Amino acid sequence: MVSAAVLHLWVLAWLASVLAADRPEKPKNLSCIAVQESEIISSNIKCQWEAVGHQTEAVPTNYTLFIRQTGDKIYTASILGPVNKTTVDLNLFPHHMELEIWVVAQNELGKEESEHLIKLANCFVKTKPPSVAVISEAVFPTSLVMSWNSSIDKSYLETIYEIRFCPLGSQKWFYVPLADTSRYIQSFRLQNLQPDTVYVTQVRCKYNNNNKHCGYWSDWSSNVTERTPEDLPKSKPDVWIITSEEGLNKRQIEFICKDPEFSNGRIRRFNITIEKQKDSIRNGTWEIIPVNRSLTDGSSSKKQITPLKTITLDDEESVTVYVTAINSVGASPQAKLIISRKTREPPAVEKTEVQSHNGQLFLSWKPPNRTVSEYVVEWVSDGERNWQRENGKTNYTAIKGDLKQFVQYRISVYPIYGKLVGKPVLERAYFEQGVPSQGPIVNLSGDPGCYTAKLEWDEIPLIKRRGFITNYTIYYRSGTETRGITVPANTTSYTLTSLSRNTKYDIWIKASTIRGSVNGSNHSFTTLKYAPGEIEGIVVGVSLGFLFVVLMTMLLCFCKKDVIKDNFWPQIPNPGDSTIGNWSPDYPLKAEAPRENCLSGISVLNVDVCDAKCVFEEDKASLPLKKDKYLSEEHSSGIGGSSCMSSPRQSVSDSDEGGDMADTTASTIQYSSVVASSGYKGQNPSSLPQQSIFSRSESTQPLLDCEENHDTMLQEGSRQCFLRQPCFTRNAGNENATNSNDFNPLEMEQQEVLDFCPLEEDTEHTAPADCQSDDWIPAPVSSYMPQLGGYRPQ
């Protein structure tokens, strides 16, 4: 049961594949070839065809090749599809016999037969190429003679030939017409060639069946090269100039030259003649410029450029140059070029434009309004110079030189009027642009300031620019903040502003072309903390301010010198002119009410003199003597602003020795006054009998102005002078100390207080009301108290 099912399935699959298969179709494009081996044709014929129709693995198609030779002899070869070629061995190739060839396709559904090929056996032959030789003849500089040998004997088959040639290095072949070689030949002369030119030649052959399309061309023979002989140059040398400025109103002209386009040989020298335009005859300078070149230089498609001569020409001068080229055969036609005065140069072309398109550089221009015989298109780059000439009726051309990528060319158009050179027009162009290979190098111009920095950079070298710079972008960064500024391509310096003080910045510049951008090298700088001259300005300002204050102070001192002198160096009056000499007990004194502004609070050593018992007997006995002694001395005034108390040291008035008086008076100014024994001058006398007392002080304070001019001051009332006199009061705690033997100075110093009351000079001096008491008596003249306050302000 299982085998029956499997068989059933197999049958169904076979039926499906058979139904899916088709009958074989007729094979097409049957071809056969027999190649040459050694010196004869091989006996094996290789045939191939095109299989047509659908084939399956279940129903394969078989192909059978049939070759029938004359005499009904058939050779066959069978193969299994889908292979569509096979080889049949004929044992010996049947030259000059007819062969019939066909192929049959067959499968289980049927068979089909291709078209029959019926040809001579030689029509299926492909021979080897012939061996070729080429020779040149000196008498025929424009031709070469070719010869060859057939690769197979003529008895087997007769062949025809095809010839082609080209100049060395060229990719364009020139073919000799088949009508000139459609017969059995073994040599041929190539004509109308260029003299002194190396040519490459080739030959091939096939079976000749009376110009019927029969047989296969052999492969081309190996290259055979040969140089044609030299001939006279047939064209003029291409003369051109290089012009540059040479000082004031002068030009430097360099004449250069290319070999003639058809030099017909190796140029060995140039003859150049330069004539001044003003010369009536051709008597200019004539020179021979030798040229040393190898044979290969003449065959190069790029013509050599030879410098001829350099001259210096005034702007108002014009010259004509004649150049001929000489080779081994003779001289070329003469070339002529006229250099006009600079002020009379013919007009230039207008509206030039350069474009790169499809791997070429095209140049267009607008012709001038004059008739132009031709144009010279010149291009220069990296020290290399070349030019080409164009017809005067055109205004558009393509640069024919070997242009390079990423190289800038300076392209100029010169109109030529006859032989007169016109003004040029210059354009710059790139055959192809790219990204610059180097960025600009930036540096600082001078030192940076506090808020600004001037940047400078050089243009990228032309060889590394690789295109037209469209713009520069300046980047500067401080910390994490980066800013950019774009400037035009013709800018090489820029000043950064709004920078921060004492800040480090990193800067770089990006150069851009239409193809991309590149960054230059980084440069760092730090802005100044203080601007130049700022510290100096501060110092100068402070100095000027100080100088102004000093000057104003000096000016003020000069204007107020009297006031300053009076304050710092008061005038000391002459004691001899003091009014104290008029003070006496008999001088009429006017009583004056005590002033209210009594100074109090000064603790002094007070002596209780209210009781007459307090006066020592020895002092009483010496009063008349001292009075006379004081009256005999010079009296001085000036008591008004000082205390009546003297220094604790002993006064001269208390010393009986004359020598001590001299020493004392040398260092002190003695003040003295005569007061009543019962109290101060002008005070009301008490019930006790009055007695004159002469008081003396050794104060070092200067006298007062009012003491010298007290009469005037009293009349004007402009100043008041006060005499501070002590007012003695008895301490309440010592009322019972009336006995002189009970007097204790230390106790009195602690308990008594001395008050000063101001008294006006030359007026009635009265004791203040608060200083008077019933027991008040004048102080002994021999008692001196220290001055606590010194000189009091007036």
Automatic annotation (TrEMBL):
<dbReference type="GO" id="GO:0004896">
    <property type="term" value="F:cytokine receptor activity"/>
</dbReference>
<keyword id="KW-0812">Transmembrane</keyword>
<dbReference type="InterPro" id="IPR003961">
    <property type="entry name" value="FN3_dom"/>
</dbReference>
<comment type="similarity">
    <text>Belongs to the type I cytokine receptor family. Type 2 subfamily.</text>
</comment>
<dbReference type="InterPro" id="IPR003529">
    <property type="entry name" value="Hematopoietin_rcpt_Gp130_CS"/>
</dbReference>
<keyword id="KW-1133">Transmembrane helix</keyword>
<dbReference type="InterPro" id="IPR013783">
    <property type="entry name" value="Ig-like_fold"/>
</dbReference>
<feature type="region of interest" description="Disordered">
    <location>
        <begin position="763"/>
        <end position="794"/>
    </location>
</feature>
<feature type="domain" description="Fibronectin type-III">
    <location>
        <begin position="129"/>
        <end position="231"/>
    </location>
</feature>
<feature type="transmembrane region" description="Helical">
    <location>
        <begin position="538"/>
        <end position="559"/>
    </location>
</feature>
<keyword id="KW-0472">Membrane</keyword>
<feature type="signal peptide">
    <location>
        <begin position="1"/>
        <end position="20"/>
    </location>
</feature>
<feature type="region of interest" description="Disordered">
    <location>
        <begin position="634"/>
        <end position="663"/>
    </location>
</feature>
<dbReference type="InterPro" id="IPR036116">
    <property type="entry name" value="FN3_sf"/>
</dbReference>
<keyword id="KW-1015">Disulfide bond</keyword>
<feature type="domain" description="Fibronectin type-III">
    <location>
        <begin position="436"/>
        <end position="534"/>
    </location>
</feature>
<keyword id="KW-0325">Glycoprotein</keyword>
<dbReference type="GO" id="GO:0005886">
    <property type="term" value="C:plasma membrane"/>
</dbReference>
<protein>
    <submittedName>
        <fullName>Interleukin 6 signal transducer</fullName>
    </submittedName>
</protein>
<feature type="domain" description="Fibronectin type-III">
    <location>
        <begin position="346"/>
        <end position="435"/>
    </location>
</feature>
<keyword id="KW-0677">Repeat</keyword>
<feature type="region of interest" description="Disordered">
    <location>
        <begin position="678"/>
        <end position="700"/>
    </location>
</feature>
<keyword id="KW-0732">Signal</keyword>
<dbReference type="InterPro" id="IPR052672">
    <property type="entry name" value="Type1_Cytokine_Rcpt_Type2"/>
</dbReference>
<dbReference type="Pfam" id="PF00041">
    <property type="entry name" value="fn3"/>
</dbReference>
<keyword id="KW-0675">Receptor</keyword>
